[in-house]
């Protein structure tokens, strides 16, 4: 979700209010879903971008005129690139990243021009592993894939009681439920692990045995982790140092992480497979309870979003987007 919101924000910055004067598209019968690349290019050319929005992991452009609107999903390796800039990565930009144009693995390039622009702005959609999808929809929010998605943690979080009921009626591991896009749209693998870490819930804990305090913590952290990541434009360099994300990438490597427990002792990060995905968790803080109540569940879950806002104001910054 945070990386997709960053993409939508980029399009709002460089595309909204501009006309699509040309579209370069390459044939890909997998990534272009239900349409050809020629059909995509023809339907967009000549229309003005009115808005760019996101729901879950899906982002879309709203164009003027009577045609359909482009609806896009990155998959594992999709990204946007503006000509003259490096593409956006969800971790640090690798050394091999390039501003070469047209970029490798390009599926389409939009040529955008405003009324007062002297030069075109070019934006490319890239996808190396071809796991992304590009569609055209008449009404993006009321048609698949968005219409099949669950709540969005930022746009449409349910109330607490409805959330608890939806979780408790499931018997799967909580990590698997968080990854189910028909339940919580936009929660990906590292976001789910971050939520579970701050909520002090083991990723294999079964949904129907979660304690009341665990459900309260999960509800709080689903919203706060996503809001925090979006508030810094998915820039992991600005994530709090005590986030699991900052320390989880050392599996199989010699260097040691520096994550600490609340008492200052080194944390033990372990990895397991849940819901078909590698899951990182902190053994001392996320113990598998199987319905047993325990004081090990933290009664007070810190508000990382509030702390981030306080720190920004203390430094003289605004509330920012």
Overview of this structure, please?
This protein is an alpha+beta fold. It is built from seven helices and ten strands. The protein has helices at 2-14, 37-44, 160-168, 174-179, 189-199, 212-231, 304-314, and strands at 19-25, 49-55, 58-63, 69-73, 78-82, 106-113, 121-127, 133-137, 269-274, 277-282. Strands 1-6-7-5 form a four-stranded antiparallel β-sheet, covered by helices on one side. The chain has a four-stranded antiparallel β-sheet with strand order 2-3-4-8, covered by helices on one side. A hairpin with a 7-residue loop joins strand 6 (106-113) and strand 7. Helix 1 runs parallel beside helix 6 and helix 5 (189-199) crosses helix 6. The radius of gyration is 21 Å and the shape is globular. Residues 294-302 and 312-321 have low confidence and may be disordered.
